[in-house]
Amino acid sequence: xxxxxxxxxxxxxxxxxxxxxxxxxxxxxxxxxxxxxxxxxxxxxxxxxxxxxxxxxxxxxxxxxxxxxxxxxxxxxxxxxxxxxxxxxxxxxxxxxxxxxxxxxxxxxxxxxxxxxxxxxxxxxxxxxxxxxxxxxxxxxxxxxxxxxxxxxxxxxxxxxxxxxxxxxxxxxxxxxxxxxxxxxxxxxxxxxxxxxxxxxxxxxxxxxxxxxxxxxxxxxxxxxxxxxxxxxxxxxxxxxxxxxxxxxxxxxxxxxxxxxxxxxxxxxxxxxxxxxxxxxxxxxxxxxxxxxxxxxxxxxxxxxxxxxxxxxxxxxxxxxxxxxxxxxxxxxxxxxxxxxxxxxxxxxxxxxxxxxxxxxxxxxxxxxxxxxxxxxxxxxxxxxxxxxxxxxxxxxxxxxxxxxxxxxxxxxxxxxxxxxxxxxxxxxxxxxxxxxxxxxxxxxxxxxxxxxxxxxxxx
Length: 460
Fold this sequence. Notes:
By secondary structure, the chain is of the alpha/beta class. The protein has 15 helices and 20 strands. The protein folds into 2 domains: 257 residues, Aldehyde Dehydrogenase, Chain A, domain 1 (3-Layer(aba) Sandwich); 187 residues, 3-Layer(aba) Sandwich (Aldehyde Dehydrogenase, Chain A, domain 2). Strands 12-13-14-11-10-16-17 form a 7-stranded mixed beta sheet, with helices on both faces. It has a 6-stranded mixed beta sheet with strand order 7-6-5-8-9-19, with helices on both faces.
């Protein structure tokens, strides 16, 4: 059996490997999942699933540092942030248990017309069927928890394919589920090439497809799903921030630095476009540059590292090309603007890049923040909304009217007031609009999507 080699993205040294799954094996997994679901005698009761998830959370707590190091080692997320990810992942498993108590139906009134009289009706929720989850690299444990733990919780068999750069955390989580008592046929770890993955997720036996990753790939795959397959897609954004003239700049800068340079900007809702009053734009840009230039860039497994590598050397090259393009078009580079190595790029702040530059139109997914001056807040909001992407946004202001104006007028699924665009807790709805995604993430919302209503109508 061939192996997929995994490397540390900073020094490119091998750190492990996982077996590559061929189609014959995946076909067997799908058939077992299909038959498992179709025979209702196989379904596990809620209390049994709860027992497994409780044990899973406990095992994860016992292996906290091991899981955090693995995230940093394979994904390049600094240890300080990797530990936060493990905490969130453990909380996510526990949240699945809590959400099960809300997976309830309701009574449907029948005698609202004469035709319905003499009947009573109620709904229950049932698992939707086999799930295929395809995940991204940037949160290699927590994203897997968000896709797999809800399926386990509601009783759906699940096949999970992690990003090829970060499969180790996914395999660790699946192995922990087995150790906690989940029979292997209920959750399968899969690594395969793109054609095989496409064949898997477009199979007619798949009831629900969960995808986190590139918009181009996600929308293409959605167009190929078998009839009846439901899906959820989570892509990226080009997150805008509106700064009001009365914002508390001193308090705002650390927040923007975290939102822009957390995981070296490799987050789908990273701060990317900052719109500030023209009289303040350069001052705010310089304050951001002062903070960004002090961030420690290095190997994520080192305790002092604040910005790790990009996931692959070619991503460093891409970010460098985009920033060079902006620079050649007259953009002022306030800090950074250079490759530090084949795998790292300096935290960068750009002032007033052109509207047509790639850094202004596309998701950078790297350690770069753009600052733009505006003379009219309505124009700033219009520019914020002008791209085909819409995910999370934010506004910094001391004025309630301005805050509410931005909440109402920014095209986003969530608008943060006096906080950065990358804020999230795992029980809130998390979703992209337009080209940024389809359906709603968040533990409870995913569990709802992985179940379906059944109604009983009783005539008496």
